Amino acid sequence: MSAPTRTPGPAAPGTVEVPARRRSLVAAAVVALRPRQWLKNLLVFAVPLAAGKLADRDNMTDATLALVCFCAAASATYLVNDSIDAKADRAHPTKRLRPIAAGELPVPIALTIAAVLAVASLGLAWASTYPAFFLTLIAYLVCTLGYTLGLKHEPVVELVLIAMGFLLRAIAGGTATGILLSPWFLTVAAFGSLFMAAGKRYSEFVRLSDDGHAARPSLARYTGSYLRFVWTLSATIMLTAYCLWAFQTATRAHGSVPLATWSVVPFVLAVLRFALDIDRADAGAPEDIAVKDRVLQVLALVWIVAFALGSAGL
Fold first, then answer.
1. Which CATH number fits domain 23-181: 3.30.160.70, 3.30.43.10, 1.10.357.140, 1.10.1040.10?
2. The pTM is what?
3. Among 104, 184, 286, 288, which lies 20 to 30 A Cα-Cα from 294?
4. What are the average pLDDT values for consecutive 10-residue runs of the chain, which has 314 residues?
């Protein structure tokens, strides 16, 4: 199947479209932190959930601390990225509205806030119960800064780094709580992360015009068919690994209908639903889909309940 035809971006290259009413410095700073994208950091609860230990008070406390650390660290890297990319973002149909690109938040102030957030997140991680979490957060910062400082222009490498951002959040749920990470979990999380990363890039490739590709050079070195291959292959491996993991988990159940096995149904449906968004080129911002897609939210909730109860031995 051939890739959909690219549609042109809504703005001419180099133009800056700012809101009719400019934001205050404080409001601009808050928006620049991208709080909506903090939804990604909920992945830190994936390991306790998969292990059936999410209700444990200590695990919940440690995972919540990991959530706070990743929110601060992620916002720090967003500020650095937007400061470096301010000029290029002005040629992007939506990124030109970001506070730094729009001239609402001065770069020196943005970088100062970023430094404070990075130090605060590392300080909290250092004081956490498990030292491995501190190393996980450092790995996340290294990956995201490496991406920001130039690796985002390298095809495939930048896909892996985007996926690592998702994967390290999930791994942090284990290193922050001391819960052992299973090979099945790592396989599902790794290829699920690559699935979302490739889907995001595919959506951008289709949606952006050639001018938009100039703002993100790595896109010009991809083809739609290649990106479709990556997200399709990733989804296939992820679903296969999850089914095997769920069936293995179900062998520990005592009931006649193990819920871990039935969790495969909402999981597959949720992946198919998200794949539809990718195919429509609507997955450029996965967090927006998570907020707006009610069907996907219901499927995710049903899956969480089924797998959590299945992991608990039901």
1. 1.10.357.140
2. 0.82
3. 184
4. 43 44 86 91 89 85 94 95 86 81 91 96 92 95 92 90 93 93 90 92 81 66 91 95 83 60 91 92 81 88 83 64
